[in-house]
Amino acid sequence: MPALNENIIEHKLIEPALADEALLAQIGSTRLEPRSIAFWPLGQSGFLIKSRFGTFVIDPYLSESLTRKYANTARPHVRMTRAPLRGADLSFVDLMIASHKHSDHLDPETTREILDASPRASLIIPEALRDYAVGLGLDDRRLIGLDAGGTVEFGGARIRAIPSAHEGLDVDDSGRHLYLGYVIEIDGIRLYHSGDTIVYDRLIGELGAAAFDLLFLPINGRDRARGVPGNMNIAEAIDLACAVRPRYVVPHHYDMFTFNSANVAEFLIDAERLPEGVAAIAPKCGERTIVSR
């Protein structure tokens, strides 16, 4: 009998709730009432958000670029969840939003495919990354650069950038933040997508006093030894939701790469301590959730 190679771990891809043509059909057929949005997790920190006014995608990673890049290295990026779509499938996007440079959030392959497929779409990025984005071959005229505190109105939404601390509150030589989160108000729904961040001292103040419907927060934590830079862990994400008291808290940054994930079942267990009026939801990749006022 051949010796067991302990470096080989049997791994089966998690299938999205909906994918490919079925997911595209559901997105296209979803009709929303006033003061409502629908969202679909796309894996990692990626979400597709639809309102009556348009369709946004935030931090989509829909390729195998990192698996190829890190093949045969000490840190292989083995996919846990199959991509529900490819960037080229998204021909109806009005706006892309990227929180920072890391390729599981601003993937050059996915970004180029979406912008090619949706020629009228614009891309919001940290202003500090404009030169980087142009260097990827992206058209500068389609880029909307924001720094922390900046706002833009687009497609019926008001989008405000706040700092994120992917370890620290890092800035470039001009003092512009390299990592951002976004507070988005659209059709009466208010949400926060954190990008990658830990809970830093002034985060709650940056979010503001107005009530939130949704917080999208990372739960994978941090472990420099494994090459995992700073993010909230499960307890920290729940603690933040306890303090901010949104209607719903939604986890992200898990079930993408085997070396950098978290157990979403543990998140749902810890969420039992959320205060009354706050609920945790963890839809599967490709699963639709509608939130209404």
How is this structure best described in words?
- The chain has helices at residues 20-29, 65-69, 108-117, 130-135, 203-207, 234-244, 264-270, and strands at residues 36-43, 46-51, 54-58, 95-97, 122-126, 143-146, 151-154, 157-163, 180-186, 189-193, 214-218, 248-252, 279-280, 289-292.
- By secondary structure, it is of the alpha/beta class.
- The protein has a 7-stranded mixed beta sheet, with helices on one face. Strands 7-8-9-10-11-12-13 form a 7-stranded mixed beta sheet.
- Helix 5 (203-207) links the parallel strand 10 (189-193) and strand 11.
- The termini are far apart.
Strand order of the largest sheet: 6-5-4-3-2-1-14
Strand fraction: 15-25%
Structural class, please?
Answer: alpha/beta
Computed CA radius of gyration, to the nearest angstrom: 18 Å
What would you give as the CATH superfamily?
Answer: Ribonuclease Z/Hydroxyacylglutathione hydrolase-like
Mean pLDDT across residues: 94
Shape: globular
Draw up the topology in text.
Elements: H1 20-29, E1 36-43, E2 46-51, E3 54-58, H2 65-69, E4 95-97, H3 108-117, E5 122-126, H4 130-135, E6 143-146, E7 151-154, E8 157-163, E9 180-186, E10 189-193, H5 203-207, E11 214-218, H6 234-244, E12 248-252, H7 264-270, E13 279-280, E14 289-292
Parallel strand pairs: 3-4, 4-5, 5-6, 10-11, 11-12, 12-13
Antiparallel strand pairs: 1-2, 1-14, 2-3, 7-8, 8-9, 9-10
